[in-house]
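Researcher: Please translate sequence to structure tokens.
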Amino acid sequence: MSRRRSPGDALRVPQAIAADVGGTAPRGSAPDLAPLRRIAEAWPAAVGEQLAQMAQPARIAGDGTLIVHARDASWTHALTLEERRILARLADLLGDDAPRALKVEVGVLAAPAEAPAEPAPEPPSAEALRRAEELTREVADPRLRDALRRLAAQSLERRKSP
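Model: Translation complete:
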């Protein structure tokens, strides 16, 4: 039962609650992220590459349930339908470290790792440039002619590469 409020209660200075909740978590302690890291590493093998792009492990709840964030509601539904298979696959991959339950919710996904950029192509040889010039000489529009000349030169250069 709550205590009855008086008109002066609104003017009271708020009190810190540290004394009331002291000892619930040691100061400076952080959760152990190793289990979640192991699950995240096994996730693509457990669910497949396509599904791994649409849903990712987010956290482990206090009762050991793996909370998974999905891109949208349709993916939460798909994951929920596959829950038993996913848990079994994680158990195969992780053994005793596997979660016992799964909860899927719509959430923010981490950005995928960017693929390494392809190296810039080598500039076309003088011969490829000369031949491209011959092929595009009759194009009236100078901007289009220039674009076609560059494209033709790159194509001719690629053709002679193995």
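Researcher: Any highlights?
Model: Residues 126-160 form one domain.
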